[in-house]
Amino acid sequence: MERTRLTSTRRDEIQRLYQLYAAGQPTLDANSLLRFLHREQMEVATNQETVERLIDRYEIEETARTNRAMTFEGFLRYMESEDCCVFDRGHTAVHQDMGRPLCHYFISSSHNTYLTGDQLVGKSHLDAYIDCWDGPHAEPIVYHGYTLTTKILFSDVIRTVERHAFEVVMAQYLISILGEKLLQTPLDLASSGELPSPNNKKMRARSEAEAEEEEEAASREAGESEEEEEDDDGEGEEDPEESQSKLMFWSPRKQVAKKKVKKVMVAQALSDLVVYTQSVKFTGFSHAGLHQHPYQNTSLGEKKAHKLAKTSGPDFVAHNQRFLSRIYPAASRTFSTNYNPQEFWSVGCQLVALNFQSRGLPMDLHDGRFRDNGGCGYTIR
């Protein structure tokens, strides 16, 4: 992540700490620095030897170094260094158990990040996940459907996936380009009633789609959105993107009448590639408990998920103990803004998708969570 410029507010805060422990002196002597480390940083094991090593490392003013003290600039360099970072360096490598079912992990997840700007007219880029549509001459294209975003070829995207990690034509591209890296058949698991673990899926790519059919609620075309009034129980209604997945197969040449729903059959060759992440419509926690399979997952818009978390929190938590849940930003976030992911992590949602192209507090929270465990994208819930 690009290092941001130190804000005056943070500099002022550090300066107040420096002045407090310098006690009116022009420099911070070694004893005062040791007291700061014990009281403020809770580094109770730090001793005089450690303090002098910090002075040698971060103080560049010769007189202060000779007097075994720190100027404010030296103290500031230390406060902004890795030596002052609260992150446990032992967590820079994978250290958690990677052998549990996928639903036991928070999983780093993005939303429409092939767009480098906003959701309506942003430029598409190959650093992406896949939002596919029918293009000219049966050539699949990638862009944010029903918008003015630029289009890129599906084949170029898959070649990029293959280099950097990972309708019938799409299946052929996936199989021919990814080859053995593509997960095409169920893994040999100890129990057929559970999801594979990150270790099981290591170095393998997977496809996600509706296994049998996609229902299109052309909300962008019709001006509808998930901001419409929901039923009181928060269950059973359709979100605009709920029936979508990371592989979507709609034809922009066929305009859909307002409020009409069109069913589109997914090619069998592509459907066959969906192994562990078959996307199904969420109709309620009770229904899911009785009918949903471990290899199936649901996608919920942030507004519907917020209502469920508020009104049915314990049921949401229980649901996520067995199944994968993906949360995605509201359709109204046309400028690629983000919601606070913590609300959905708190009820156990594994795939809390954010617009990675937009920096800010939500992405800071995401980066902080997934910096752990070696930055592999999986952390135990």
Brief description of this entry?
By secondary structure, this protein is an alpha/beta fold. It contains 14 helices and 13 strands.
Name its key features.
31% helix; three-stranded antiparallel beta sheet; four-stranded parallel beta sheet; 14 helices; alpha/beta; 381 residues
How would you sum up this structure, described in words?
The chain is an alpha/beta fold. It has 14 helices and 13 strands. The chain has helices at 8-22, 30-39, 48-58, 62-66, 72-79, 154-164, 168-178, 219-222, 268-271, 285-291, 302-311, 313-320, 342-345, 361-371, and strands spanning 28-29, 69-70, 105-107, 132-133, 141-142, 152-153, 213-217, 261-265, 278-279, 296-301, 324-328, 351-352, 378-380. The strands form 5 sheets. It has a 4-stranded parallel sheet with strand order 9-10-11-12. A 3-stranded antiparallel sheet has the order 4-5-6. The protein has a two-stranded antiparallel sheet with strand order 1-2. α1 packs across α5 (72-79), α3 (48-58) packs across α5 (72-79) and α6 runs parallel beside α7. The longest helix has 15 residues, at 8-22. It is elongated, with a radius of gyration of 25 Å. Residues 210-238 and 240-257 have low confidence and may be disordered.
